[in-house]
From TrEMBL:
This is Uncharacterized protein. It is found in: Membrane. One of its GO terms (cellular component) is membrane. The gene is AVEN_6555_1. Keywords: Ion channel, Ion transport, Membrane, Sodium, Sodium channel, Sodium transport, Transmembrane, Transmembrane helix, Transport. It comes from the Eukaryota. It holds the Pfam family ASC. It is a multi-pass membrane protein. It comes from Trichonephila clavata (Joro spider). The chain crosses the membrane at residues 7-28. GO terms for molecular function: sodium channel activity. Belongs to the amiloride-sensitive sodium channel (TC 1.A.6) family.
Length: 257
């Protein structure tokens, strides 16, 4: 009987030691304690910036296409108030004598635009976009010499003219521009919808020369440098005449494998 008790005790101790050693082997093989570190680098890459402007076009080029522009004086001559209240309002408006109406929808229905034609139809990005980085040492302009021309997707019936800066999309060897945490990026969009080329103050009312396909707004998207997106779907809309402040937060997660 004493031998049986001894065998039971030895068996229990042996089983306990076996389970303990197995657990320690599992513990040493697979880490169960994760050391989480949060760092805030002093310098990091600027995200890619994609912006779209439906009004970034040269309207005078549309008048040379399959659909001709309509002069304002022709509108006043052909239509009269007896044709409806809306027509009466249009006729009585003080249109400039050289104002031209462009039927954009009919133009796009009858014309398939090639890449070379789109190049002439859109305004240079320098005409409506400026970007600068402000730091304690001064300020410098953002690099726009190698910008990408994005898709012409739009959520309206008119194509959107999109540009992307600081992106490695289709140019993987590009060196990304960097800023410090204390730096600030200022972006200004200026949409001249008068086409008068007059040097007057911002408070002066200037009547436009052409109609435009959309309201004064710009679509903006900030994203990863190796990705591409459409600000119409994954961005924000910035209205004209307003000032916006956007705070960026970058998070990088390394998962255990």
């Amino acid at each position: 009987m004493r031998h049986l008790k001894l065998i039971v005790v030895v068996g229990c101790i042996g089983g306990f030691l076996y389970q303990t050693i197995s657990f320690l082997q599992y513990y040493w093989t697979y880490a169960v304690v994760v050391d989480i570190q949060t760092i805030a680098p002093e310098e990091f890459s600027i995200p890619a910036i994609t912006f779209c402007n439906d009004n970034g076009i040269n309207p005078r080029y549309f008048c040379n296409g399959p659909i001709k522009c309509i002069m304002a004086n022709m509108i006043k001559t052909i239509f009269n108030c007896s044709m409806g209240q809306l027509i009466c309002i249009m006729v009585t408006l003080k249109f400039p004598r050289d104002f031209r109406t462009i039927p954009y929808s009919d133009y796009l229905k009858k014309k398939n635009l090639s890449p070379s034609e789109l190049k002439y139809l859109k305004k240079p990005v320098e005409d409506f976009f400026s970007c600068r980085i402000i730091s304690s040492a001064g300020q410098r302009n953002c690099k726009t010499d190698d910008l990408l021309i994005g898709s012409y997707y739009s959520d309206s019936n008119f194509f959107g003219v999109c540009y992307t800066i600081n992106s490695r999309w289709s140019q993987p060897d590009k060196v990304l521009e960097k800023i410090k945490r204390s730096d600030k990026i200022e972006i200004e969009f200026f949409v001249d919808m008068t086409d008068r080329n007059t040097n007057v103050s911002m408070d002066t009312i200037i009547l436009p020369k052409y109609n435009y396909p959309s309201t004064v707004a710009v679509q903006l998207g900030l994203h990863h440098n190796d990705a591409s997106l459409s600000p119409h779907r994954n961005g924000v809309e910035l209205l004209g005449g307003k000032k916006y402040q956007i705070t960026l937060k970058q998070v990088c997660s390394d998962f255990l494998k």
